[in-house]
Amino acid sequence: MPVQKPETQPIIIVKKIVHGGHHGGAWKVAYADFVTAMMALFIVLWLMGSSEPVKKAVAGYFRDPSGKAAEKGSGQGGVGENISIRKDDMGKLKEKLESAMMQSPELAKLKNQVQMTVTGEGLRIELLESEVGTFFEKGSSHPSGTGKAMLDMLAGQLGKMQNRMLIEGHTDSQPFAASAAGYSNWELSADRANSARKLMQESGLRVNQVAEVRGYADQRLRKPEDPKNASNRRVSIVVKYIGT
Fold first, then answer.
1. Domains in the chain and their CATH numbers?
2. Residue 25, SS3?
3. Cβ-contact 167, 212 below 8 angstroms
4. 3-class state of residue 36 by DSSP
5. Closest CA to 174 of 228, 221, 212
6. 213 beta partners
7. What is the pTM of this model?
8. Which residues contact 220 (CB under 8 A, 6 or more apart)?
9. Tens-digit pLDDT string for the chain (244 aa)
């Protein structure tokens, strides 16, 4: 009787896939990337709608996160703003300076003697004298205590910007008392402008921020119809537009 061979049993291979974690973590990484991308998108959209000074300030931060370059440029530790005020923003700068002036009781009293006007040249800030002298001692190029406080406040605000300045000195048409000694309204107007420049650089303006210092004597009267009016005696600070 023939011997039957046992049937060969098929070999079954079972593969087990083991997942990392309870449900896997790949989706968490993808979700985190999505949230990060959305946040970056919102930041970009916010920047696109921001004003020019804000854009400049953000760009300045990424160029110099430590703020050391701005600190060296301004001579003031920790300022770090170093923004540029362009033509469309001069009105906002005017409002900012007026607000800073009103925060000081001493300076707020002088609001009628400080005229700020946006012109084709830039923001013109004029410190108008009174009959007895307000910002400078009468007949002198030495700033008064009030004049020092005003120039110090302006320097602190303007020194944060990249815009360059020019400073002008003006007198009325009354001949200077010491003209016989060779000192005239020409010298007085130039000396007052230069004195303002020096004090403001000591209080916050960068050394290279003042582009010009001018003395006009009585050649550009504020009130030509009244050439001896005290308001003709003034120092003007012009914040120039970028690129001019």
1. 9-82 (no CATH), 87-240 (3.30.1330.60)
2. coil
3. yes
4. helix
5. 228
6. 167
7. 0.65
8. 170
9. 555 555 566 666 666 555 555 555 677 778 888 888 888 887 878 777 766 656 666 666 565 554 444 444 433 333 345 566 777 788 999 999 999 999 999 999 999 999 999 999 999 999 999 988 899 998 899 999 999 999 999 999 999 999 999 999 999 999 876 555 778 999 999 999 999 999 999 999 998 999 999 999 999 999 999 999 999 999 999 999 987 6
